[in-house]
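Journal club side-thread
Mid-discussion, someone asked how the predicted structure for our own chain would compare to the paper's figures. Pasting it here so we can look after the session.
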Amino acid sequence: MTHPRSPLAPATFPDLPQVAGVIPRVARARYKAWDRCDLTFVTLAPGTTVAGVTTQSRCPSPEVEWCRQALPLGRARALVVNAGNSNAFTGDRGRAAVEAIAARAAAHLGCQPSDIFVASTGVIGVPLPIDRAEAGLDAAFVAEPCDWRAATDAIGTTDTFPKAAMTHAMIGDRRVSFVGIIKGSGMIAPDMATMLGFLFTDAAIEAGFLQRALDEANARSFSCITVDGDTSTSDTVLAFATGAAGNPAIAGDDDPGADAVRAAIADLCLQLAHLVVRDGEGASKFIAITVEGAVSDASARTVALSIANSPLVKTAIAGGDANWGRIVMAVGKAGEPAERDRLAIRFGATPVAMNGLAVEGYDEAPVAAHLAGDEVEIGVDLGLGDGRATVWTCDLTHGYISINADYRS
Protein backbone atom coordinates (compact mmCIF):
# COMPACT_ATOMS: atom_id res chain seq x y z
CA MET A 1 0.00 0.00 0.00
CA THR A 2 1.35 3.40 -0.92
CA HIS A 3 0.84 6.54 1.12
CA PRO A 4 0.72 10.21 0.21
CA ARG A 5 4.03 12.01 0.00
CA SER A 6 4.91 13.69 3.28
CA PRO A 7 4.12 17.43 3.28
CA LEU A 8 7.51 17.92 4.95
CA ALA A 9 9.44 16.33 2.07
CA PRO A 10 12.05 18.37 0.19
CA ALA A 11 10.82 19.71 -3.14
CA THR A 12 13.40 17.77 -5.14
CA PHE A 13 15.85 14.91 -4.83
CA PRO A 14 19.40 16.26 -4.47
CA ASP A 15 21.85 16.22 -7.35
CA LEU A 16 24.34 13.75 -5.92
CA PRO A 17 27.84 13.18 -7.29
CA GLN A 18 29.22 9.79 -8.11
CA VAL A 19 31.62 8.55 -5.45
CA ALA A 20 34.76 7.02 -6.89
CA GLY A 21 35.05 3.36 -5.94
CA VAL A 22 31.29 2.96 -5.31
CA ILE A 23 28.99 1.31 -7.87
CA PRO A 24 25.31 0.80 -6.95
CA ARG A 25 22.96 -1.57 -8.78
CA VAL A 26 19.36 -2.58 -8.09
CA ALA A 27 17.22 -5.61 -8.95
CA ARG A 28 13.84 -7.20 -8.26
CA ALA A 29 13.99 -9.99 -5.70
CA ARG A 30 10.19 -9.74 -5.29
CA TYR A 31 10.21 -10.04 -1.51
CA LYS A 32 6.67 -8.61 -1.59
CA ALA A 33 3.92 -8.42 -4.18
CA TRP A 34 5.02 -5.07 -5.52
CA ASP A 35 6.21 -3.82 -8.88
CA ARG A 36 9.58 -2.31 -7.93
CA CYS A 37 13.23 -3.04 -7.27
CA ASP A 38 13.79 -4.24 -3.72
CA LEU A 39 17.39 -5.46 -3.68
CA THR A 40 20.33 -3.07 -3.75
CA PHE A 41 23.85 -4.28 -4.45
CA VAL A 42 26.70 -1.79 -4.01
CA THR A 43 30.23 -2.82 -4.92
CA LEU A 44 33.13 -1.11 -3.21
CA ALA A 45 36.70 -0.77 -4.41
CA PRO A 46 39.35 -3.02 -2.89
CA GLY A 47 40.82 -1.36 0.17
CA THR A 48 37.52 0.22 1.27
CA THR A 49 37.27 0.69 5.01
CA VAL A 50 34.03 0.47 6.98
CA ALA A 51 32.50 1.59 10.26
CA GLY A 52 29.02 1.11 11.65
CA VAL A 53 26.50 1.51 14.42
CA THR A 54 23.62 -0.87 15.01
CA THR A 55 20.44 -1.20 17.02
CA GLN A 56 20.48 -1.52 20.79
CA SER A 57 17.47 -3.84 20.59
CA ARG A 58 17.91 -7.10 22.52
CA CYS A 59 16.18 -8.86 19.60
CA PRO A 60 18.45 -7.92 16.66
CA SER A 61 18.12 -9.39 13.20
CA PRO A 62 20.69 -11.86 11.81
CA GLU A 63 21.85 -9.09 9.47
CA VAL A 64 22.71 -6.88 12.45
CA GLU A 65 24.62 -9.72 14.08
CA TRP A 66 26.47 -10.39 10.82
CA CYS A 67 27.52 -6.75 10.51
CA ARG A 68 28.63 -6.63 14.14
CA GLN A 69 30.90 -9.63 13.56
CA ALA A 70 32.38 -8.17 10.38
CA LEU A 71 32.88 -4.56 11.49
CA PRO A 72 35.98 -5.16 13.66
CA LEU A 73 37.84 -6.33 10.53
CA GLY A 74 37.40 -2.83 9.13
CA ARG A 75 37.15 -3.75 5.45
CA ALA A 76 34.32 -4.03 2.91
CA ARG A 77 33.83 -5.02 -0.74
CA ALA A 78 30.04 -4.85 -1.06
CA LEU A 79 26.74 -3.95 0.54
CA VAL A 80 23.47 -5.85 -0.01
CA VAL A 81 20.18 -4.29 1.13
CA ASN A 82 16.86 -6.13 1.07
CA ALA A 83 13.55 -4.24 1.36
CA GLY A 84 10.17 -5.69 2.27
CA ASN A 85 11.39 -8.36 4.70
CA SER A 86 13.47 -7.60 7.80
CA ASN A 87 14.41 -11.28 8.30
CA ALA A 88 14.30 -10.57 12.06
CA PHE A 89 13.14 -13.14 14.61
CA THR A 90 13.57 -15.94 12.08
CA GLY A 91 16.04 -18.24 13.85
CA ASP A 92 18.38 -20.51 11.92
CA ARG A 93 16.54 -19.91 8.64
CA GLY A 94 17.22 -16.19 8.92
CA ARG A 95 20.90 -16.73 9.68
CA ALA A 96 21.19 -19.14 6.76
CA ALA A 97 19.75 -16.50 4.44
CA VAL A 98 22.35 -13.93 5.47
CA GLU A 99 25.16 -16.45 5.10
CA ALA A 100 23.89 -17.44 1.65
CA ILE A 101 23.73 -13.81 0.49
CA ALA A 102 27.23 -13.05 1.75
CA ALA A 103 28.65 -16.22 0.22
CA ARG A 104 27.09 -15.58 -3.18
CA ALA A 105 28.24 -11.96 -3.32
CA ALA A 106 31.73 -12.92 -2.10
CA ALA A 107 32.05 -15.60 -4.76
CA HIS A 108 31.04 -13.08 -7.42
CA LEU A 109 33.66 -10.56 -6.24
CA GLY A 110 36.38 -13.03 -5.25
CA CYS A 111 36.55 -11.86 -1.65
CA GLN A 112 35.76 -13.16 1.82
CA PRO A 113 32.10 -13.39 2.97
CA SER A 114 33.07 -11.14 5.90
CA ASP A 115 33.75 -8.39 3.34
CA ILE A 116 30.04 -8.35 2.43
CA PHE A 117 27.67 -6.29 4.56
CA VAL A 118 23.98 -7.16 4.60
CA ALA A 119 20.94 -5.22 5.81
CA SER A 120 17.24 -5.97 5.54
CA THR A 121 14.09 -4.02 6.38
CA GLY A 122 10.40 -4.80 6.45
CA VAL A 123 8.07 -7.23 8.18
CA ILE A 124 9.41 -9.02 11.27
CA GLY A 125 9.05 -12.78 11.71
CA VAL A 126 9.14 -13.95 8.09
CA PRO A 127 12.33 -15.72 6.99
CA LEU A 128 14.00 -14.09 4.00
CA PRO A 129 13.50 -16.49 1.06
CA ILE A 130 16.95 -17.58 0.00
CA ASP A 131 15.88 -18.47 -3.53
CA ARG A 132 14.52 -14.96 -4.13
CA ALA A 133 17.58 -13.35 -2.57
CA GLU A 134 19.95 -15.36 -4.75
CA ALA A 135 17.91 -14.71 -7.89
CA GLY A 136 17.85 -11.02 -7.05
CA LEU A 137 21.60 -10.99 -6.52
CA ASP A 138 22.21 -12.77 -9.81
CA ALA A 139 20.12 -10.12 -11.57
CA ALA A 140 21.99 -7.34 -9.77
CA PHE A 141 25.38 -8.78 -10.74
CA VAL A 142 24.63 -8.21 -14.44
CA ALA A 143 22.53 -5.05 -14.08
CA GLU A 144 23.75 -1.71 -15.31
CA PRO A 145 25.02 0.62 -12.58
CA CYS A 146 22.24 2.89 -11.35
CA ASP A 147 22.09 6.41 -9.97
CA TRP A 148 21.62 7.30 -6.31
CA ARG A 149 17.91 7.96 -6.80
CA ALA A 150 17.29 4.39 -7.94
CA ALA A 151 19.35 2.97 -5.08
CA THR A 152 17.50 5.13 -2.56
CA ASP A 153 14.10 4.12 -3.95
CA ALA A 154 15.03 0.45 -3.71
CA ILE A 155 15.84 0.46 0.02
CA GLY A 156 12.54 2.05 1.12
CA THR A 157 9.47 0.43 2.68
CA THR A 158 6.79 2.80 4.04
CA ASP A 159 8.91 5.82 3.05
CA THR A 160 6.91 8.39 1.11
CA PHE A 161 9.94 10.02 -0.49
CA PRO A 162 13.54 8.97 -1.20
CA LYS A 163 16.05 10.37 1.28
CA ALA A 164 19.61 11.28 0.40
CA ALA A 165 22.13 14.00 1.12
CA MET A 166 25.67 15.06 0.29
CA THR A 167 28.54 17.21 1.49
CA HIS A 168 32.21 17.77 0.76
CA ALA A 169 35.44 18.27 2.67
CA MET A 170 38.93 19.48 1.85
CA ILE A 171 41.87 17.29 2.77
CA GLY A 172 44.86 19.41 1.88
CA ASP A 173 44.23 20.41 -1.72
CA ARG A 174 41.92 17.46 -2.40
CA ARG A 175 38.15 17.85 -2.41
CA VAL A 176 36.48 14.66 -1.22
CA SER A 177 32.81 13.76 -1.55
CA PHE A 178 30.38 12.33 0.99
CA VAL A 179 27.02 10.88 -0.09
CA GLY A 180 24.41 9.27 2.14
CA ILE A 181 21.16 7.43 1.49
CA ILE A 182 18.70 6.40 4.16
CA LYS A 183 15.32 4.81 4.69
CA GLY A 184 13.03 5.22 7.67
CA SER A 185 9.56 6.49 8.41
CA GLY A 186 8.08 4.57 11.33
CA MET A 187 9.44 2.51 14.23
CA ILE A 188 11.83 5.40 14.80
CA ALA A 189 13.34 5.84 18.25
CA PRO A 190 16.75 7.01 19.41
CA ASP A 191 18.33 3.74 20.46
CA MET A 192 20.66 4.69 17.62
CA ALA A 193 17.44 5.30 15.64
CA THR A 194 15.34 3.04 13.49
CA MET A 195 16.39 2.99 9.93
CA LEU A 196 18.94 1.77 7.44
CA GLY A 197 21.48 4.41 6.47
CA PHE A 198 24.57 4.18 4.30
CA LEU A 199 27.36 6.73 3.90
CA PHE A 200 29.93 6.64 1.13
CA THR A 201 33.07 8.71 0.62
CA ASP A 202 36.07 8.60 -1.70
CA ALA A 203 38.32 9.83 1.09
CA ALA A 204 41.02 7.54 2.49
CA ILE A 205 40.13 7.05 6.15
CA GLU A 206 41.40 4.30 8.39
CA ALA A 207 38.65 2.21 9.94
CA GLY A 208 39.39 3.24 13.52
CA PHE A 209 39.09 6.95 12.82
CA LEU A 210 36.00 6.38 10.65
CA GLN A 211 34.37 4.50 13.53
CA ARG A 212 35.11 7.24 16.05
CA ALA A 213 33.80 9.92 13.71
CA LEU A 214 30.60 7.95 13.04
CA ASP A 215 30.05 7.28 16.74
CA GLU A 216 30.34 10.99 17.50
CA ALA A 217 28.02 11.95 14.65
CA ASN A 218 25.47 9.30 15.58
CA ALA A 219 25.25 10.58 19.16
CA ARG A 220 24.11 13.99 17.88
CA SER A 221 21.94 12.90 14.96
CA PHE A 222 20.42 9.44 14.60
CA SER A 223 20.33 8.97 18.37
CA CYS A 224 18.49 12.28 18.75
CA ILE A 225 15.46 11.58 16.58
CA THR A 226 12.18 9.89 17.36
CA VAL A 227 8.89 9.42 15.55
CA ASP A 228 7.02 6.98 17.74
CA GLY A 229 9.36 5.81 20.52
CA ASP A 230 9.82 2.32 19.05
CA THR A 231 13.27 0.86 18.38
CA SER A 232 13.68 -1.54 15.47
CA THR A 233 15.35 -4.93 15.39
CA SER A 234 17.25 -3.94 12.27
CA ASP A 235 18.75 -0.46 12.80
CA THR A 236 22.01 -0.18 10.91
CA VAL A 237 24.13 2.75 9.74
CA LEU A 238 27.29 1.91 7.83
CA ALA A 239 29.99 4.25 6.52
CA PHE A 240 32.32 3.22 3.70
CA ALA A 241 35.52 5.02 2.67
CA THR A 242 37.00 3.85 -0.63
CA GLY A 243 40.24 5.86 -0.56
CA ALA A 244 39.89 6.59 -4.29
CA ALA A 245 40.55 10.31 -3.72
CA GLY A 246 44.18 9.43 -3.07
CA ASN A 247 44.72 11.52 0.05
CA PRO A 248 47.03 10.28 2.81
CA ALA A 249 44.80 8.05 4.93
CA ILE A 250 43.41 9.82 7.96
CA ALA A 251 44.13 7.82 11.08
CA GLY A 252 44.22 10.31 13.96
CA ASP A 253 42.86 13.63 15.15
CA ASP A 254 46.09 15.46 14.30
CA ASP A 255 46.20 14.32 10.68
CA PRO A 256 45.59 17.00 8.01
CA GLY A 257 41.90 17.07 7.13
CA ALA A 258 40.79 15.13 10.20
CA ASP A 259 38.59 17.94 11.52
CA ALA A 260 37.07 18.54 8.09
CA VAL A 261 36.22 14.86 7.67
CA ARG A 262 34.71 14.65 11.14
CA ALA A 263 32.60 17.75 10.44
CA ALA A 264 31.47 16.37 7.06
CA ILE A 265 30.36 13.07 8.58
CA ALA A 266 28.48 14.91 11.34
CA ASP A 267 26.80 17.17 8.79
CA LEU A 268 25.78 14.28 6.55
CA CYS A 269 24.35 12.27 9.45
CA LEU A 270 22.33 15.23 10.70
CA GLN A 271 20.92 15.92 7.24
CA LEU A 272 19.86 12.28 6.90
CA ALA A 273 18.40 12.12 10.41
CA HIS A 274 16.24 15.19 9.74
CA LEU A 275 14.95 13.63 6.53
CA VAL A 276 13.77 10.57 8.44
CA VAL A 277 11.80 12.75 10.86
CA ARG A 278 10.33 14.71 7.94
CA ASP A 279 8.94 11.42 6.65
CA GLY A 280 7.59 10.31 10.02
CA GLU A 281 4.51 8.24 9.36
CA GLY A 282 1.55 10.61 9.14
CA ALA A 283 3.69 13.64 10.06
CA SER A 284 2.57 17.17 9.28
CA LYS A 285 5.04 19.13 11.45
CA PHE A 286 8.80 18.91 12.02
CA ILE A 287 9.56 19.64 15.68
CA ALA A 288 12.88 20.66 17.25
CA ILE A 289 13.03 20.40 21.05
CA THR A 290 15.94 22.05 22.88
CA VAL A 291 16.47 21.53 26.59
CA GLU A 292 19.08 23.63 28.37
CA GLY A 293 19.95 24.38 31.97
CA ALA A 294 20.12 20.68 32.82
CA VAL A 295 22.64 19.11 35.19
CA SER A 296 24.36 17.41 32.21
CA ASP A 297 24.01 16.99 28.48
CA ALA A 298 22.81 13.43 29.01
CA SER A 299 20.14 14.61 31.42
CA ALA A 300 19.02 17.28 28.95
CA ARG A 301 18.73 14.64 26.21
CA THR A 302 16.60 12.40 28.43
CA VAL A 303 14.24 15.25 29.23
CA ALA A 304 14.05 16.30 25.59
CA LEU A 305 13.18 12.76 24.53
CA SER A 306 10.53 12.53 27.21
CA ILE A 307 8.87 15.54 25.59
CA ALA A 308 9.43 14.29 22.06
CA ASN A 309 7.96 10.85 22.77
CA SER A 310 4.87 12.08 24.60
CA PRO A 311 1.70 11.30 22.62
CA LEU A 312 -0.01 14.14 24.47
CA VAL A 313 2.62 16.67 23.38
CA LYS A 314 2.71 15.34 19.82
CA THR A 315 -1.06 15.38 19.37
CA ALA A 316 -1.29 18.89 20.82
CA ILE A 317 1.23 20.09 18.25
CA ALA A 318 -0.71 18.28 15.52
CA GLY A 319 -3.77 20.28 16.51
CA GLY A 320 -1.91 23.56 16.89
CA ASP A 321 -2.78 23.62 20.59
CA ALA A 322 -0.31 25.60 22.74
CA ASN A 323 -0.89 23.31 25.70
CA TRP A 324 2.39 23.90 27.51
CA GLY A 325 1.09 22.01 30.54
CA ARG A 326 1.78 18.81 28.62
CA ILE A 327 5.42 19.84 28.34
CA VAL A 328 5.53 20.37 32.11
CA MET A 329 4.13 16.86 32.45
CA ALA A 330 6.77 15.38 30.16
CA VAL A 331 9.59 17.15 32.01
CA GLY A 332 8.29 15.91 35.33
CA LYS A 333 8.01 12.27 34.27
CA ALA A 334 11.48 12.08 32.70
CA GLY A 335 13.14 10.99 35.95
CA GLU A 336 15.86 13.63 35.67
CA PRO A 337 16.61 16.51 38.07
CA ALA A 338 14.07 19.31 37.61
CA GLU A 339 12.64 21.98 39.87
CA ARG A 340 9.17 23.24 39.14
CA ASP A 341 9.85 26.82 40.21
CA ARG A 342 12.91 27.16 37.95
CA LEU A 343 11.33 25.75 34.83
CA ALA A 344 10.86 27.95 31.75
CA ILE A 345 9.12 27.01 28.48
CA ARG A 346 8.86 28.71 25.12
CA PHE A 347 7.26 28.05 21.74
CA GLY A 348 9.41 29.56 19.03
CA ALA A 349 10.67 32.84 20.45
CA THR A 350 7.69 33.36 22.76
CA PRO A 351 8.07 32.53 26.49
CA VAL A 352 4.89 30.96 27.83
CA ALA A 353 5.90 29.83 31.32
CA MET A 354 8.70 30.48 33.80
CA ASN A 355 9.40 30.12 37.51
CA GLY A 356 6.58 27.63 37.88
CA LEU A 357 3.90 29.95 36.47
CA ALA A 358 2.43 31.12 33.20
CA VAL A 359 4.12 34.27 31.92
CA GLU A 360 2.11 37.27 33.10
CA GLY A 361 0.21 38.84 30.23
CA TYR A 362 1.08 35.90 27.96
CA ASP A 363 -0.41 36.42 24.48
CA GLU A 364 -1.18 33.12 22.78
CA ALA A 365 -1.58 34.68 19.31
CA PRO A 366 2.11 34.52 18.25
CA VAL A 367 2.35 30.99 19.62
CA ALA A 368 -0.70 29.92 17.64
CA ALA A 369 0.86 31.44 14.54
CA HIS A 370 4.09 29.54 15.20
CA LEU A 371 2.26 26.25 15.70
CA ALA A 372 0.31 26.76 12.48
CA GLY A 373 3.54 26.39 10.49
CA ASP A 374 5.10 23.11 9.50
CA GLU A 375 8.25 23.66 11.57
CA VAL A 376 7.84 24.02 15.33
CA GLU A 377 10.44 24.84 17.97
CA ILE A 378 10.02 24.08 21.67
CA GLY A 379 12.51 25.37 24.21
CA VAL A 380 12.83 24.32 27.84
CA ASP A 381 15.22 25.77 30.44
CA LEU A 382 15.55 23.73 33.63
CA GLY A 383 17.65 26.39 35.36
CA LEU A 384 19.94 23.88 37.07
CA GLY A 385 23.22 23.73 35.15
CA ASP A 386 24.98 23.87 31.80
CA GLY A 387 23.61 20.69 30.22
CA ARG A 388 22.06 21.09 26.78
CA ALA A 389 20.60 18.87 24.06
CA THR A 390 18.41 19.11 20.98
CA VAL A 391 16.24 16.31 19.63
CA TRP A 392 13.93 16.20 16.66
CA THR A 393 10.52 14.62 16.25
CA CYS A 394 7.23 15.06 14.41
CA ASP A 395 3.60 15.36 15.40
CA LEU A 396 1.23 12.43 15.82
CA THR A 397 -1.77 12.37 13.50
CA HIS A 398 -4.47 9.96 12.35
CA GLY A 399 -2.17 9.13 9.44
CA TYR A 400 0.15 7.20 11.73
CA ILE A 401 -2.68 4.86 12.70
CA SER A 402 -3.78 4.41 9.11
CA ILE A 403 -0.30 3.40 7.99
CA ASN A 404 0.45 1.01 10.84
CA ALA A 405 -2.97 -0.62 11.10
CA ASP A 406 -2.38 -2.41 7.80
CA TYR A 407 1.42 -2.50 7.56
CA ARG A 408 1.60 -6.14 6.47
CA SER A 409 -0.79 -5.71 3.55
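Post-session note: The two ends are 7 Å apart (CA to CA).
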